Amino acid sequence: MTNQYDSENLPLNNKRALRKLARAIAMSQDQFSLILVCCNSSSLRSQIVNHLQELSPLKIEEITLHPSISTLFTTILTALKEPKPEALMVFGLESVVAIEQVLGATNLVRDEFRKQFPFPLVLWVNDEILQKLTRTAPDFKSWAINSIRFDNPKNQPLDWSATTA
Prior knowledge:
Rossmann fold, globular, 7 helices, alpha/beta
């Protein structure tokens, strides 16, 4: 049987990025931590997320934003269930219609993220959203560790078994 993660041509640095992401989530338990993950390929993102769910012993919840949202904070707060997740991954920022307004509002209420979300918050972004985040919500973005990047150049197979080493 072929492992789906071995079938894609992925750069070797994605193994390190995946381990870095899993470590950042694990080390931020019970406290707010903003983790920005930059990936321009939706298929690669899906593979990484699937593998992260297999790799991590933590229950990582997921939210996909609707394009019509007006605030990130309220959208996340409303979507959360009790008990709070051990980690939360947010997808769909690239599809938000009023992204500049959403990011501006996020910057204004940044302290509420720390108060209300005692868990790592993983925002999946692409290069365009990362630039807009830097420009429109610099104070919020400054809370993030350096963004973790997953790239998808051709002809570089990834041995997924090495991610657990």
